[in-house]
Each structure stands twice: as C-alpha cells, then as structure tokens.
Write a structure and sequence with these properties.
It is a single chain. It contains 14 helices and no strands. The protein has 306 residues and is mostly helical. The longest helix has 33 residues. The model has no long low-confidence stretch (mean pLDDT 87).
C-alpha cells in the first residue's frame, strides 16, 4: 500500500495544500485501521459474495469493472512521471503487462516485490524532502484553498485499498503505528513542494514534485535527481497496478473460476487508458468513495449482523 500510494502522492497530491492532504490521509488511515480490525481472513471479495448472495455478486462485478477502469487511469500516471517526454500510452501498457504477470503469480509475490521497492522509495523521497528543507520559504506554508480538497485527497488515499479484497494468508499485525506515517509523509512532501515553489506554482504545474527535484542537489555532487524521481514514480505506479490487478483477480473468482481475470482486467485497462485520461476528478473521487469505502463498510456491517 505504501509503495502504491507513493506514486499517487508524487504525481497528484503535491499541488494541494498540506493541511488538506493531512486531513484526507488521516481519514483514510482511520478507515484502514477499522477495516483491518473487522476484516475476516478470506478478504472482502469472498465476504461480499458469501454474505449478500446475488446482490453481493452484482456489487463484486461492478467493483471489478470500476477497478479495471481505474487501472487505466492509474497507468496514465506513468506518463506523468516523465513530463519531459511523451510516453503515453506505451509506458502504461508496459506496466500493465507487468501487473498482469504479477497477478498470475499471486498477491503474495506482488507484496514481496513492493516491499523491496518500498525501501528504495522511502530513501529517495526522504532524501528529496530533507535536502529541500533549506530552500523552503516558511511563509508559503499557510493553508490554501478550502477543506473540500481533503475529499479528493481521501479518494486518492483509497486507491491502494483494493488490497483488502484479497485474502490474508498470514497473521496481520494489528494496532501498529506505521500507517500513521503515510498521511504525515504525504503532507510533508506537499508542504516542502509548496514551500519551495510557492503554492500557486505548485498548484499550476502538472507534476510539481518533478520541478522541485530540479532544484535539489546532494552535497553539490548529484545535481539532477529528476531521473531518480521518475524511476521512483514508475515503481510506485507498478505497485499500485499490481495490487489492483490482484484485487480484480479475487473479485473475478467470486463470479467465475477463471485464472486469467487479473490479466483480462489489465487488458481492459489498457483499452480504457485513452477515455480515462480525461475523466473528471469528481467522478473518480465519487467512484473511489463508493467502491473502496461505502461498499466495504456495508459488507462488514452485513457480515456482523445477527
């Protein structure tokens, strides 16, 4: 989840004022804790179909279709990771192909891969943040916009929440504090970006974090961090796509036992990259709140009812 969320933060959230990023992220983490506490080991997909009958399978089919469509949008983030070149849609197709292969290997294999990538991402984003601090204009950190921006941030924080549709084969460590670092990390990155570029410029640029990386140097030795940042964003997009592809696989298993549901969803996502590129942000946010917040909460509530 952290690796997939890093791409969303780097591409989409650094142009939003940091208090709203923190508020939206903290709300999402509260949901993370709740769903992790009440979720059974078989996962949301199996519980959805098992407790709600035909209605549950219908909702599973809708969630599967929506997740595949969002994968098409998320694959477009790979092009945003390289703003100096036009890589759309080829780079997204390449990552979708890797995600399709990962979904065939299974959720555990994708999780192990993302776990390794997360270490690299943590170091790179941490270095970028720390070495940007001397250039921060602290007066630029005053809140901009209004609280409704936090709803968009909440929707984007829910993108990696598809992992809960799959089963949990190991023992979950409940009550840990690590998820709390996710909104803090996102808000810090947004604050540093606004403090260096000014909030107006950060909001106007397509990928403000890339502009921030152009002004950062490491001890006067490494002057160009943009290639490393682009690589980090691409890795994050792959982690996000692989988790969503695995969610599609588990949702599809509740409808028909076909082992190619994950790759099929990736193929559908590749075909939808062009229409999803122009999707309205409000529509994307509404879908995220419905399929990754409302339906899971409904499922857990029904499963606990006597």
């Amino acid at each position: 989840m952290a690796a997939g969320l890093s791409a969303v933060v780097g591409v989409c959230l650094c142009g939003i004022s940091w208090p709203w990023v923190l508020l939206g992220g903290a709300t999402a983490v509260g949901y993370y804790y709740y769903i992790d506490r009440v979720l059974p080991e078989e996962g949301l997909a199996a519980r959805l179909a098992g407790t709600m009958g035909w209605l549950g399978k219908f909702l599973a089919a809708l969630t599967l279709a929506w997740t595949a469509a969002v994968m098409g949008w998320a694959a477009g983030l790979a092009d945003a990771a390289f703003p100096m070149v036009d890589g759309f849609p080829q780079l997204g197709w390449a990552l979708l192909a890797l995600a399709a292969w990962g979904s065939r290997k299974g959720s555990a294999a994708c999780a192990r891969c993302s776990g390794v990538l997360c270490l690299f991402l943590l170091v790179l984003y941490g270095v970028l943040t720390v070495f940007s601090l001397p250039d921060v204009q602290w007066q630029e950190l005053q809140p901009q916009g209004d609280w409704t921006h936090s709803i968009w941030c909440l929707a984007l924080f829910l993108l990696p929440a598809g992992v809960w549709y799959g089963p949990c084969t190991g023992e979950r460590k409940k009550g840990g504090l690590l998820p709390l670092l996710l909104p803090v990390f996102a808000a810090a990155l947004a604050a540093v970006t606004a403090g260096v570029l000014t909030p107006q410029l950060a909001a106007a640029r397509p990928v403000p974090l890339y502009d921030l990386a152009q002004s950062v140097s490491l001890f006067g030795v490494v002057e160009r961090m943009e290639p490393l940042l682009s690589a980090a964003m691409t890795m994050g997009v792959f982690s996000l796509l692989s988790s969503l592809a695995c969610a599609c696989r588990h949702l599809g298993e509740q409808l028909y036992p076909w082992k190619w549901t994950g790759p099929g969803a990736c193929a559908l996502a590749a075909a939808l990259m062009y229409p999803m590129k122009t999707i309205a942000g409000d529509f994307l946010a509404a879908g995220a709140l419905l399929f990754w917040l409302a339906i899971p909460l409904l499922t857990t509530a029904v499963s606990k009812a006597p």
